[in-house]
Amino acid sequence: MRGSRRASPSRSSCQLDRDSIVYQLAPNIFACTTGRNCMFLDLRQDRYLSVPQEQMDTLAPQIHDWQLSAHDYETPGSLSSTAAQLADDLVAAGILCPYCKGSERRPALPPPATRDLASMGISTRSAAAHGHWGGTLSALISADIALRVLPLWRIVGRISSQVPPVGMGFRTDRLTTAVMLAQCFHEIRPWFPRNYLCLFDSLALTLFLLRRDIHVRWIFGVREDPFAAHCWVQYGDVVLNEYLDRSRLYTPVMAV
């Protein structure tokens, strides 16, 4: 992944005194937990940061709408010196910022995938793909250009503006159509002269399907030991460009 420079979050009128301060994830920051660590995706910087889960648990009561803790907290209290230092470090890194009432809620992740194309048992004739050559190549070219000239956060922003909130875009009656279109895309894809890469192929498939009113989700996930980042396309609970068993190796951190 490539990065872009970002200004540090400002301590505005939302800044409170140390004993009552409540933080939130900064804009363009997404988080998940692997059980042992909390992983942060900094979309603007195009990078990941890992913090041990036990350390994040000490700061959890002070983070607004935080749901990645092993404990339940009702109200924030005073920070320990260790937690306060962690908070300062995360603010300096652009991960946290002081909480502002009225901030937008973060988009929810879709339900976990339970199926992939192979398990759907839906096939399409090769002849059907012929009618989608133009649309497939257009999506592949658009994705290729976008990744060459735009930072990832701008691409994600553009895709996000085309997708309804989670739960509103999926239509059961369009699932078979989504699967068949994805199969047509995969049949044509080898003819495009670009190496397979999850970021490129997922973006191209997303564009191809969105242009046909199939509101898919572009999922970003991470894993540890060793660290790896991956992305795939999902419609409802069906993975459209990855094997289910492989996608399950990754913990979703962001859904576009």
What does this structure look like?
The protein has helices spanning 53-59, 81-92, 117-120, 126-130, 133-149, 152-160, 175-188, 198-210, 244-247; strands at 23-25, 29-33, 37-42, 47-52, 96-98, 115-116, 217-223, 228-235, 238-239, 251-255. With 256 residues, the chain is an alpha+beta fold. The protein has a 5-stranded mixed beta sheet with strand order 6-9-8-7-10. A 3-stranded antiparallel beta sheet has the order 2-3-4. Strands 1-5 form a two-stranded antiparallel ribbon. α1 crosses α2 (81-92) and α5 (133-149) crosses α8 (198-210). The chain is elongated, with a radius of gyration of 20 Å. Mean pLDDT is 86; it is low at 1-13.
Give the arrangement of secondary structure elements:
Elements: E1 23-25, E2 29-33, E3 37-42, E4 47-52, H1 53-59, H2 81-92, E5 96-98, E6 115-116, H3 117-120, H4 126-130, H5 133-149, H6 152-160, H7 175-188, H8 198-210, E7 217-223, E8 228-235, E9 238-239, H9 244-247, E10 251-255
Helix pairs in contact: 1-2, 5-8
Features:
about 260 residues; alpha+beta; 5-stranded mixed sheet; 3-stranded antiparallel sheet; 9 helices
